[in-house]
Amino acid sequence: MAPSDTAASPSSARDFVWQEGRAFARTQWRMLARFVSASLCRTITTVAVVLLIRDFLAGVLAEQQGLAAGLARSIGQGAALWVLAGLLLLTFIAGSVLAYHTQVVMQRLVRLLELDLMQRLMRHLLTLPVSFFDRQRKGDLLDSVRQDVSRTRSAIAASMESATYGAQVAGYLLSVVLLSPRLALMSVPVLLVAAVPTRWISRQLQRRSFALRRHGYHLTDLLLQLLQGVRIVKIYAGEEAETRNSIGRARSYFAELVAQVRVRALGDVMLESIAGLSVVIVTVMGGFEVMRGRMSFPGLVAFLVAIRAMHGPLNNAFSQFLEVQKNWASVERVRSLLATEPEIRDRPDAVALRGPIETLRFDGVSFGYAGGPPILKDLSLEVKAGQRVGIVGPSGAGKTTLVSLIARFYDPTAGRVLLNGRDLREYRLADLYRHMAMVTQDPFVFGTSARDNIRYGCPEATDAEVEAAARAAEIHDDLAALPEGYDTVLGVGGRLLSGGQVQRLSVARALLKNAPLLMLDEATSSLDSISEVKVQAALERLMRGRTTIVIAHRLSTLRNADIIVVLDDGRAVGLGCHDTLLRDCPLYRELWETQQFAQALPAGGHVFRGEGDDLVLGESIQ
């Protein structure tokens, strides 16, 4: 499921930023107090600079009045000039130091906020059910964790900087009012004209930010797909087509990026033009004020310095405001992810799962994925402790869905799955998962050491216990032969191991966990004959004494199963042992005979040959 292509309500993202800011301020109030204090002191220095310039010009060089005039009479005009110059320099230095301190404290604050957001997002994502990840694109989630959190941090930092620049603007406004209230009343309102097109620019940037994010996650998703499927791309000579597709996606992304830059640049041009207009008005109107004797010439110069100096923080405040709008889509995405409620979660009255597993029962269970047709239909089945249950059927019959319901990756849309007579939904999830282990046809290896991979479900296990599990899974010798033995980092996906070795490592992980309920989802389907023999031997050890649900495409591996369930189009069309089903279930008999026929083919197999859509089974290729 892709994120929304349209902008959400701006108030929701604003509320999120405000709530996050308040919550963060409660935990980091000391550092925030330092930031506010430094900002206020810096604002004071901006006022002091303007007033010192006025006194410098008026008191020492021109009209010989005010505090500077007294200083000139006491120590002389030349000495007073140096003293005021020194004070002015010290004020500038103090302002620069305060600016540095404000920036460092602010960046530390927002980086801590970014770290906190990323941790919360990762923790929250891991509370969401498998169904959530089935609906999401990997590129979108990757962008959310990496870029959206960073852009949310940028938006919050921009909000803080806007407040800082706003304080400086307030300081300069105070300065011009102190210099000439009349001239301030005539010139300052011109700057407010900038607020008129701001709303339009804000909306444009918000719209562009959502479009840019949409193109960005499409590009990331495409790149992830290329990295994962590079072997298929090469073997089918798809480099040129994929290059064109990637370039097309990249051009769309950068076109939106340029469009966003244009909108921002338009805002900067508008603000700079209005700022220039305010300087012209001050020059003309101030000149009339000086000619009429209502204002001194040094006061006018100081007023012009203050107005011109105000343009810097005003422009910066406006730019930071646009920065917030630019990152609006990322703020909204992080907000929506954190607000996503898990569909599968503990009930308030959930109970602990204690004691051994006695029965597992499907009671009239039906299930369909959101928006799709039913996958399982009115399925009833009872499994007793220690039984080995095989699940077979054609592709799409609902075999993996059945296992997913046991693992509570999904909840039934009708009926109940009962464990020891209680609905699975009545148990705490953590307790359920402590009693379960799973080995799938596509086992996952973490990018850590072989030892840590085996220990994943049982972190307190000793090295001796890890090696004992590896021996039982027939993977010990392979792991010991690695460059650093069990401490060799395997890399994500187990790049240093073959498919059979990865599967046996997964068996070792399940053995070490020692869970009473085991689920095997076609655990040998993608292996060669030699690897399958080793894995099957390891699985036999794993299944001993455990209640086991086995999905298998090779029916020969289920001949010793206590119960075999034959699924077809979501319904159980056969239930019994191997011999019973061969006699009474036409679908099972067909599946069995088809596999026996395939195994009886001559060495070398057969190929399909023909022209167009007319394919026929031909002789083997020698």
Essential attributes:
ABC transporter transmembrane region fold; disordered N terminus; Rossmann fold; 4-stranded antiparallel beta sheet; alpha/beta; elongated; single chain; 3 domains; 622 residues; 21 helices
Describe the structure.
With 622 residues, the chain is of the alpha/beta class. It has three domains: 10-339, Up-down Bundle (ABC transporter transmembrane region fold); 345-435 and 515-622, P-loop containing nucleotide triphosphate hydrolases (Rossmann fold), CATH 3.40.50; 442-513, P-loop containing nucleotide triphosphate hydrolases (Rossmann fold), CATH 3.40.50.300. It has 21 helices and twelve strands. The protein has helices at 10-27, 29-62, 67-75, 77-125, 130-135, 138-179, 181-191, 195-228, 230-235, 239-291, 297-326, 328-339, 399-406, 429-434, 450-454, 463-472, 476-480, 499-513, 529-543, 578-584, 586-599; strands spanning 359-368, 374-384, 388-392, 414-419, 422-423, 436-440, 517-521, 547-551, 563-568, 571-576, 607-611, 614-618. The strands form three sheets. The chain has a six-stranded mixed β-sheet, sandwiched between helices. The chain has a four-stranded antiparallel β-sheet with strand order 2-1-4-5, covered by helices on one side. α1 crosses α12, α7 (181-191) runs antiparallel to α10 (239-291) and α8 packs antiparallel against α10 (239-291). The longest helix is centred in the middle third of the chain and has 53 residues, at 239-291. It is elongated, with a radius of gyration of 36 Å. Mean pLDDT is 79; it is low at 1-8 and 603-622.
